[in-house]
């Protein structure tokens, strides 16, 4: 197992933990294919999740809560969010 895999697992785990906290769910109940709607996360929960992700990874997420569709940050599913955060974290290195 290479270092990149370990790093992405850490990113994935942290993102899922943040999303689980917002959804008031157990980590194991947050599935990669789930949408935020599926998990019961509303727009306020989304904004709080974005702030938590920015803080956890010390990154700037290109997301505008007023125009979520216009953002470069894909929030279509948990997997998409994990992938987007992994990309942002990789740019930091």
Provide an overview of this structure.
- The chain is an all-alpha fold and 93 residues long.
- Helices cover 55% and strands 0% of the residues.
- It is built from three helices and no strands.
- The longest helix is centred in the first third of the chain and has 21 residues, at 3-23.
- The protein is globular.
- 19% of the residues are buried.
- The model has no long low-confidence stretch (mean pLDDT 89).
How would you summarize this macromolecular structure in one to three sentences?
The protein is mostly helical. It contains 3 helices and no strands. The model has no long low-confidence stretch (mean pLDDT 89).
Write the layout of secondary structure elements.
Blueprint: H1 3-23, H2 43-57, H3 78-92
Helix pairs in contact: 1-2, 1-3
Give keywords.
globular; mainly alpha; 93 residues
Described by strand count, sense and barrel closure, the largest sheet is: none
Mean pLDDT comes to 89
Order of helices and strands: HHH
The number of E-state strands comes to: 0
SS content category? mainly alpha
Distance N terminus to C terminus? Answer: 20 Å
Mass-distribution shape: globular
User: Mind telling me the C-alpha Rg?
Assistant: 13 Å
Bin the strand percentage.
Answer: under 5%
Give start-end ranges of low-pLDDT stretches: none
Work out the helix count.
Answer: 3
Share of helical residues: 40-55%
């Amino acid at each position: 197992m290479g270092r990149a895999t370990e790093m992405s697992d850490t990113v994935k785990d942290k993102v899922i933990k943040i999303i689980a906290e917002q959804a008031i769910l157990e980590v194991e109940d947050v599935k990669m294919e789930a949408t935020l709607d599926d998990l019961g996360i509303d727009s306020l929960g989304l904004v709080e999740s974005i702030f938590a992700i920015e803080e956890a990874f010390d990154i700037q997420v290109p997301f505008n809560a007023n125009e979520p569709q216009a953002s470069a940050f894909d929030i279509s599913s948990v997997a998409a969010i994990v992938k987007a955060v992994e990309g942002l974290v990789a740019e930091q290195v």
